[in-house]
Amino acid sequence: MNIMKYKDYIARIEYDEEDRIFVGHLEGIKDIVGFHGSTVDELENAFHESVDNYLAISEETGRPAQKPYSGDLMLRINPEVHAAVAAVSQVQGKSINQWVSEVLEKAAHI
User: Fold this and answer.
1) pTM, entire model
2) 35 bridge partner residues
3) Which of the ends of the chain has fewer CB neighbours closer than 10 A, N or C?
């Protein structure tokens, strides 16, 4: 997965073969914010500009910028799985939250 991060925003990056450019879009918000560049440096600069412009326009118009994911995640799982997670995290000397966070980070390849 090709992603970039800036000011808590995450962008998904794709390569457009036809135009021979990198194209990015902010993820985790409903507003559409895109950018592009021919090189990695151009792409990164365009990403930063897009986020900064998005935040500035939101402030100017009085419409709050949408926030990326908060980091709070509610899960409903089978009680047996919950018990197993609690046991494994305790054996590893971690809270359930720490253990699950680490497992999800590895699974998401971040």
Assistant:
1) 0.66
2) 24
3) N
